[in-house]
């Protein structure tokens, strides 16, 4: 009887683990980081590369250190680079989508505390599949002054007109 109960418990545990894995989004995260802030700064960006195994949409972001967290894009409108919040970001199956300064990124605003270099910030990403079913992924992002080694902070984007290229400081996105 004890052996049967042990087998039953192991089977139940395996099913529970499989169910949890089925609910978790299959998204690979690379080169994730958040930009450090200076005292008094109320907003900063978080960056990473997302690769979804199946087509998903990034539909939300949250962090306990931010009163407001949003998905943003920066794009040229005429001769002006504009930043705006977007409702969702498509993650095509098997394609890497870069969140980086000067492009798509996460904005952490109304910060409740400074983000100090060489510490971590908790961030929750929310995804939706084609059927609208949502799932979340908890991350702990390293805080840095610039992109970590090996991460492309600007990628192949052309520099802004009149500027030789990126030189983001602690307050820039």
Structural account:
20% of the residues are buried. Strands 1, 2, 3, 4, 5, 6, 7, 8, 9 and 10 form a 10-stranded mixed β-sheet that branches. By secondary structure, this protein is mostly beta strands.
Key phrases:
single chain, 173 residues, mainly beta, Immunoglobulin-like, ten-stranded mixed β-sheet, 1 helix, disordered N terminus, disordered C terminus
Mean pLDDT: 81
Assigned CATH architecture of the domain at 26-144: Sandwich
What name does the CATH topology of the domain at 26-144 carry?
Immunoglobulin-like
- How would a textbook summarize the main sheet? 10 strands, mixed
Short précis:
By secondary structure, this protein is mainly beta. Helices cover 13% and strands 46% of the residues.
């Amino acid at each position: 009887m004890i052996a049967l109960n042990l087998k039953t418990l192991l089977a139940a545990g395996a099913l529970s683990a499989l169910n949890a894995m089925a609910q978790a989004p299959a998204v690979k995260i690379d080169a994730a980081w958040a930009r450090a802030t200076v005292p008094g700064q109320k907003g900063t960006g978080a960056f990473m590369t997302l690769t979804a195994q199946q087509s998903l949409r990034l539909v939300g972001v949250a962090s306990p250190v931010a009163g407001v967290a949003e998905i943003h894009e920066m794009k040229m409108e005429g001769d002006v680079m504009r930043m705006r919040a977007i409702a969702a970001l498509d993650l095509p199956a098997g394609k890497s989508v870069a969140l980086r300064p000067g492009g798509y990124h996460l904005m952490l605003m109304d910060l409740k505390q400074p983000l100090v270099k060489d510490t971590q910030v908790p961030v929750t990403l929310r995804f939706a599949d084609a059927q609208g079913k949502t799932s979340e992924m908890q991350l702990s992002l390293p805080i840095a002054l610039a992109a970590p080694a090996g991460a492309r902070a600007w990628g192949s984007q052309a520099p802004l007109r009149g500027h030789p290229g990126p030189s983001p400081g602690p307050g820039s996105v």
